[in-house]
Amino acid sequence: MTENLPGAHMRAELNSQPETWARAAEMRTEQALLPASGARIAVVGCGTSWFMAQSYAALRESAGQGETDAFTASEVPSDRGYDAIVALTRSGTTSEVLELTKRVKGKTPVIAVLGDDTSPLVDLADSVIALPFADEQSVVQTRFATTALALFRASLGEDLTKAIADAQAVLDGTDDAALGEADQYSFLGLGWSIGLAHEAALKMRESSQSWTESYSAMEYRHGPIAIAAPGRITWQFGTAPEGLKAQVEATGARFVQHDIDPLADLVRVHRVALDRAVAKGLDPDQPRNLTRSVILDD
């Protein structure tokens, strides 16, 4: 890697995802620290971590593991009883996550899933699952978020072999150049892939300052489809609702859908976003107005 090239860290990190997913899938001891089946839990994070929390919550509930809510860390209800809180944060320094952990200390166990195992959250949380091998130098997250979700999926009994193979195939292949040339992007998902759609939109905004939106695929026709037009892309993660493709194409917009694991399709978005950023003369390792962690002043 030539570290002085724009986006060099992001490129190396996104390319390593099949390897980090496989490693997380084998972390059985750490997976056992996550709340047991039947526990009523909240999963919290900020930004990217919040979207991964949404995906984990949907997967856990659909697997019959128990009631699971997802919140941005600043919006966790103070009077709702949970058996545990799973706090997802790459840096372990995000102000809202630290404040929440302090607030519930001694009342609700907090299981921290983090990248930096030297961070302040390590001493505050009741249990810690550290993924330092997935931590990143780029401000724009790729592998930490997806590796945490791989860990969550494996903990629910999923076999990630296909997801890992699909991601590797994406990385070994070549993207359609037109994917990075749209005027506007709408990302859609269903169930657990709604969180991925939100994350895809955030990645494209952060890295390349692009106009992106994200929705539940079933809600897209309730207004947002008005933005579809020639030169724009509607990108579906996973299976699309019946008839949606034809309705999008009738607007002149391009409908994008790949028959692969939705998490692997997010890897494709990572690369498209990076290449789009570099083509615009931007450096997604140091995006405009952003830092690695949001630390608020007292």
Automatic annotation (TrEMBL):
Domain SIS, first and last residues per copy: 29-162
Keywords: Hydrolase, Repeat
Organism: Microbacterium esteraromaticum
Protein name from the UniProt record: Glucosamine-6-phosphate deaminase [isomerizing], alternative
GO biological process: carbohydrate derivative metabolic process
Pfam families: SIS (PF01380)
Enzyme nomenclature, EC number: 3.5.99.6
UniProt xrefs under Gene3D superfamilies: Glucose-6-phosphate isomerase like protein, domain 1
GO molecular function: carbohydrate derivative binding; glucosamine-6-phosphate deaminase activity
Extent of the signal sequence: none
